[in-house]
Design brief:
Layout lengths: L27 E6 L2 E6 L2 E2 L9 E2 L2 H12 L11 H11 L5 H13 L5 E2 L4 H22 L6 E2 L8 H11 L4 H14 L2 H8 L5 H8 L1 H10 L3 H25 L3
Parallel strand pairs: 5-6
Antiparallel strand pairs: 1-2, 2-3, 2-4
Helix pairs in contact: 1-2, 1-10, 2-6, 3-5, 3-6, 6-7, 6-10, 7-8, 8-10
C-alpha cells in the first residue's frame, strides 16, 4: 500500500541545511601557543567533541583547519570539514588507541585492494595491472614487503613478513600522522595506498584514482548515476584533504 502525505500550504519542509548548527562566530585566527598553534573563534579556542582545546603542531596544519572554519556560511556543515574531523579524531580517539589503530591498518594490508584482481574483462585486467603493479613493486622496494596478487575474491594468505613490515612502518608516527594514514587506508581499502600517500609516492588525487579504478571502469561501460557521482566526489575530497594535512603536518612550524 502506498502512503501519501499532504502538507499544508505555506508549511516549509525542513531541508538538510536547516538542521545544521548556526555559525556562532565572526572571526577565525591562528595563534602560537606553548604547545602548538591554536585555532580561535572570536578569540576563543576551538574545542573537540571531548572538550579538548584544539592545538596543532605546525602553523600550516592549523591554517588548513582554520580555513575550513572560515569558509562556513550561515550554518556549520561539519561533514564538509574533513581536516577538522581528522584532527578531532586524532585528539579524542586515536591518541588513546594507537596500538589498535596500527593493528587495523595491518588488517587492511592482509586484504589489500591492490591484491584482488578481476578475472575479466581483459580491459579491466590490464588496467588493474598497469595501475596497481607499480605500487606493489614500490612496497617491495621501499617497505621490503612482498604482496601477492590473485584473481577473484578468494582470501589470499599474505606473507607474515610483509604484514610485519607494514606494522613497522606505522611505528614512530604520532597520533596526527597515524590518524591520516588510518583514514586514507580505510577510504582506499588499501594499506599500500595509504602508506604510499604518507611517504609521498602518490598524492591525494592519485590515491583516489587508484582506489576507484574499478568504479570508473564500470562508469565507462554503463554510465554514472547521481548518487555514485556524489559519493566519488566526497571520496576525492577526503583523500585530497588527508594529503594536504599530511604535508601541512610535515611543514616547518
Amino acid at each position: 500500500m502506498t502512503q501519501t502525505y499532504d502538507t499544508k500550504p505555506g508549511v516549509k519542509i525542513p531541508s538538510r541545511e536547516d538542521s545544521l548548527p548556526k555559525r556562532f562566530y565572526e572571526t577565525v585566527t591562528v595563534e602560537a601557543m606553548a604547545d602548538g598553534f591554536a585555532i580561535l573563534l572570536d578569540g576563543r579556542a576551538v574545542k573537540t567533541p571531548a572538550r579538548q582545546s584544539l592545538s596543532l603542531p605546525t602553523q600550516a596544519a592549523a591554517d588548513l583547519v582554520a580555513a575550513e572554519w572560515a569558509a562556513q556560511g550561515e550554518r556549520i556543515d561539519a561533514p564538509n570539514m574533513p581536516a577538522t574531523r581528522l584532527v578531532f579524531v586524532a585528539l579524542d580517539r586515536v591518541s588513546q588507541v594507537m596500538e589498535e589503530t596500527r593493528a587495523e591498518i595491518v588488517k587492511y594490508a592482509s586484504t589489500d585492494l591492490l591484491c584482488f584482481r578481476a578475472p575479466e574483462p581483459a580491459e579491466l585486467v590490464a588496467a588493474q595491472s598497469a595501475a596497481w603493479d607499480p605500487l606493489l613493486g614500490w612496497a617491495e622496494e621501499t617497505l621490503d614487503a612482498h604482496f601477492a596478487a590473485a584473481q577473484g575474491l578468494m582470501p589470499i594468505d599474505q606473507d607474515p613478513v610483509a604484514l610485519s613490515q607494514v606494522l613497522a612502518a606505522t611505528h614512530g608516527l604520532d597520533h596526527w600522522t597515524l590518524t591520516c594514514l588510518a583514514h586514507a587506508t580505510a577510504v582506499c581499502g588499501s594499506a599500500i595506498l595509504g602508506l604510499a600517500l604518507l611517504k609521498g609516492r602518490i598524492n591525494g588525487g592519485e590515491a583516489f584514482t587508484l582506489s576507484t579504478l574499478d568504479e570508473h571502469f564500470q562508469i565507462s561501460q554503463w554510465g554514472e548515476d547521481h548518487e555514485a557521482a556524489e559519493r566519488l566526489a566526497r571520496l576525492k575530497i577526503e583523500l585530497e584533504q588527508v594529503d594536504a594535512l599530511l604535508r601541512a603536518l610535515a611543514a616547518q612550524a
